[in-house]
């Protein structure tokens, strides 16, 4: 597969187009591509363009072909609502969630979250996660970049109107995933922090209409739970099922 690059300012199909500086730097300095090499460009609006590098250096240019209607999005629109996790766990979660087809990620501050972020630190971390989502799209072949939302408290998230079904992972909850009815619209899955959701948070979520869900008898780490849930949901109702 040819190297893929995200061009957020848009594409100019069937023409020569200056490359964004960040794309040109990554192509030339990191991947060691040269003039004449073939790449794929996408702008997040759907589809992609095959392109040939015409010039690099200070004035990078590529010749783009037609926009191709290439998509690899799941028919199941899943938002991963992830409680803040410490260290580089959030980086891992965002990257793998994109690969597994999540359409959006919403980080939330939970009572037992070890990681505490606010102000400029929070904004910088969200921007970092958004770039991880971009890189994961480039690697995985996706042409639509999932948005990473600003960090909000769980209570604020639950107070917002949300379309579709909301599930909250809670060890010991009754009811197997396979026995749930397929969602008729978007689906959100809420994942707790290292210490799990507090009883008050679970009660608040249920009051807001979230359905408790357990994935088998074992307790997952926070960085495992959401990814296991995404894979299970895609297998049941998404593009892992073979019925998409």
TrEMBL record:
GO terms for cellular component: cytoplasm. Transmembrane segments: none annotated. It catalyses: uridine(1498) in 16S rRNA + S-adenosyl-L-methionine = N(3)-methyluridine(1498) in 16S rRNA + S-adenosyl-L-homocysteine + H(+). The keyword Cell inner membrane does not apply. Residues 20-60 form the Ribosomal RNA small subunit methyltransferase E PUA-like domain. One of its GO terms (molecular function) is rRNA (uridine-N3-)-methyltransferase activity. Specifically methylates the N3 position of the uracil ring of uridine 1498 (m3U1498) in 16S rRNA. Acts on the fully assembled 30S ribosomal subunit. This is Ribosomal RNA small subunit methyltransferase E. It comes from Zoogloea oleivorans.
């Amino acid at each position: 597969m040819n190297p893929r690059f995200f061009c957020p300012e848009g594409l100019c199909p069937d023409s020569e187009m200056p490359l964004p500086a960040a794309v040109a730097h990554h192509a030339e300095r990191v991947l060691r591509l040269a003039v004449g090499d073939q790449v794929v460009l996408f702008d997040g609006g759907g589809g992609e363009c095959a392109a040939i590098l015409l010039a690099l250096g200070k004035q990078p240019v590529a010749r783009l072909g037609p926009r191709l209607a290439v998509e690899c999005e799941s028919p199941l629109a899943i938002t991963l609502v992830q409680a803040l996790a410490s260290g580089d766990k959030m980086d891992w979660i965002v990257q793998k969630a994109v690969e597994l087809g999540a359409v959006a990620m919403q980080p939330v501050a939970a009572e037992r979250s070890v990681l505490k972020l606010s102000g400029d630190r929070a904004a910088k971390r969200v921007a970092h996660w958004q770039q991880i989502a971009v890189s994961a799209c480039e690697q995985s072949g996706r042409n639509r970049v999932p948005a990473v939302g600003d960090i909000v408290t769980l209570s604020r998230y639950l107070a917002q109107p949300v379309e579709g079904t909301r599930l909250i992972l809670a060890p010991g909850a009754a009811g197997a995933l396979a026995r749930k009815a397929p969602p008729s619209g978007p689906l959100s899955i809420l994942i707790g922090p290292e210490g799990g959701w507090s009883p008050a948070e679970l009660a608040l979520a249920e009051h807001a209409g979230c359905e408790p869900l357990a994935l088998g008898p074992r307790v997952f780490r926070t960085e495992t739970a959401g990814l296991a849930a995404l894979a299970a949901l895609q297998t049941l109702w998404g593009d892992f099922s073979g019925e998409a």
